[in-house]
Amino acid sequence: MPEEPSQSGEPDRPSAEEIEELARRLRDAEHLTPEVREEMAGLLRELAVALETPDASAHADQLARSAAQLVRALHDQHEPGLIDAARERLEAAVARAESRAPVATDIVLRLIDTLSSLGI
User: Fold this and answer.
1) Does residue 9 sit within a domain?
2) What pTM, to 2 d.p., does this model score?
3) What separation in angstroms does the CA of 8 have from each of 5, 11, 17, 22?
4) Is residue 81 assigned to a domain?
5) What pLDDT, in 10s, does the model give residues 39-92?
6) Which runs of consecutive H residues, i.e. helices, occur in 3-101?
């Protein structure tokens, strides 16, 4: 049986409330277009709902953690290298989670597609 992602040394996954708060903060990110803000906020809300399901796995937790890090870096307008590193971590989490957390993976892939349309 494949191993679950290691939780040692990693922060707990963001709660649904924390993901919702990120969605609210993202709506105020004036450096993004209104359409992108709304799309990304909507995807974060979907992710928050997916995390609240009883069958959310450790893989979904890792996706949530990585997505939250990327959104925080984007919202706080970190330098491109930090945003790129956060995106790479998110893509690696997607690759590990694809078969174990398909709903969360689909949501995160749509988030990545949105970022790609911005050149991020």
Assistant:
1) no
2) 0.78
3) 9, 8, 23, 24
4) yes
5) 999 999 998 888 888 777 888 888 888 999 998 888 888 888 999 999 999 999
6) 16-27, 34-51, 58-75, 80-97
